[in-house]
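Notebook B, p. 112. Complex prediction, attempt 2.
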Amino acid sequence: MDDVAILESIRRQTVAVVPEIDPAEITPDRSLADLGCNSVDRADIVTAVMEELAIEVPLSEFRQGAPVGELVELLRTHA
Amino acid sequence: MTDRLTGIESLNVYGGVACVPVAELFAGRGLDTGRFGNLMMARRAVALPFEDPVTNAVNAAAPLLERLGEEERDSVEFLITATESGVDYSKSVASYVHEHLGLGRHCRLLEVKQACYSATAALRLAASYVASDVSPGARALVIATDVALADERAEYAEPATGSGAVAMLVGDDPRVLALDPGAFGLYSFETLDTARPSPAYDIADVDRSLLAYLECLRESFADYRARVEDVDLMTTFDLLALHTPFAGMVKAGHRKLLREFTAATPAEIEADFERRVGPSLTYPGEVGNLFSGSLYLALAAALDTARPAAPLRVGLFSYGSGCSSEFFSGVADQRSAEEVAAMDIAGRLSARAELTFAEYLEVLPENMRCLVPERDRKVDVAAYEHLLDRCADRRPMLALRAVEDHHRRYEWI
């Protein structure tokens, strides 16, 4: 799975959880927290992306404050 | 182990003698009020500097023991304190608690630790001991007790973290909750999500912790379903009580569970949350996260708010960072409502002294050193009398007055 497809999924699920966020602002250098997602939003987004892409990432590999680019990489590694 | 019913005979919450409105804390710290709704909290318990894990435990358990006759008190032959706020590497909190509760000397003392899961492990141990019948008529006293080590560094965890204790008398007349024999699901694995690496501070990776909680909820429920016949998440449980670090986390957990195990629509999930989980959130919204007492604070709230008039089944989820978790269940009935109501938990929470943000800041540095070992220390209990005077109809309470050559000294005030 390529990074573009993963980033698109993150954008889709982020906007589904927090509709106020402009998808264009969801770039690899920003973190979901920077974009205004609280901890529950972030958990919802990450689990929804894993469901959509059918990827299981061991949860202990996620860390607080990770930029979107790191999430993409983590998901790609486990795809 | 037999299939005899065992469980919680009586339960009491100690949610402090002081509290601070969460809105004041948000304003004082300049936190984003947009996130206020995620906590669903009105107030949080604040310890006064003469309170510690020992006093919290004693102040939670004393009202339970006062209701017992001498013979029943002597039947308590197992005292377990569950805490991540130990005051010594060797000597247990239970040893002090045993003394100040005046329990008989023919009693086992133990302190257990597994973050916020430990009280559930202690309850399991106690109930299994009672059910084993090696000592017919024996009871156990399980007390989950902790203190907050959260200041401005903890950001949104500061308003969410409470201080206090929940005491549960465990025996074979489970008036509050009869544990369903053999009905449990487990899920544990190593991770570092939140921890207390020092007696002076906590660390937390909020994202990892939330994701671990959600994974444990799903997997422990799946394990429960595999062990217990004919389980339907929507109909088997009339009430749900989950470990409640903050209500938003519980809501996320409930939503995830229903999305994975039922065909409920988003509107149905929301309505189900209000109906089956909502009652458990009232006291957590007044106290904050009570660590391993959190689940039992939620249980007390569920029973006191829903007030069962007939037998009903409660589903419970216990999670402790690090991490270990359990989904289990029990039956409550009209006696449960009466037993919990007798403790007047809501009344005592509303009688607490309400602190301003400035008063909260004054006691915070003292509270942050609560667990830091010191050979000698004096605590000026009288300095806080003006705050205690604000409590309506205050019960006598245990207070830490000094540490003398490492020995903690207490007095009733």
